[in-house]
Design a protein that fits this description.
Helices cover about 35% and strands about 25% of the residues. It is built from two helices and three strands; from the N terminus they run αβββα. Strand 2 (about 35-45) and strand 3 (about 50-55) form a beta hairpin.
Length: about 80
């Protein structure tokens, strides 16, 4: 079970960014195996499952952009990968 701050904080962030009221179909649950990040799987009602990846504050914007490019390349190659 995840902590209430993650659940509430993530929903608030999504609502602020999208301007839509959203609810969980599945609350965030921790995924194991992250070396450099804490990851959670969750699902919003009416949407595909998603992954929240929390990187340490010591990560640069350049590193995060590189992760986004890698994810987009996988998706473009029809390899199932979460959007970053």
């Amino acid at each position: 079970m995840t902590s209430q701050p993650i659940n509430e904080g993530l929903l608030s962030f999504i609502q602020e960014q999208t301007g839509r009221g959203v609810v969980y179909e599945q609350e965030p649950i921790p995924l194991l195996g992250g070396i450099d990040a804490t990851t959670y799987k969750f699902k919003l009602r009416g949407m595909e499952p998603m992954v929240l990846r929390l990187l340490g504050s010591d990560r640069s914007a350049e590193e995060v952009k590189r992760l986004q490019i890698h994810s987009q390349a996988l998706i473009h190659s029809n390899i199932k990968a979460p959007k970053v």
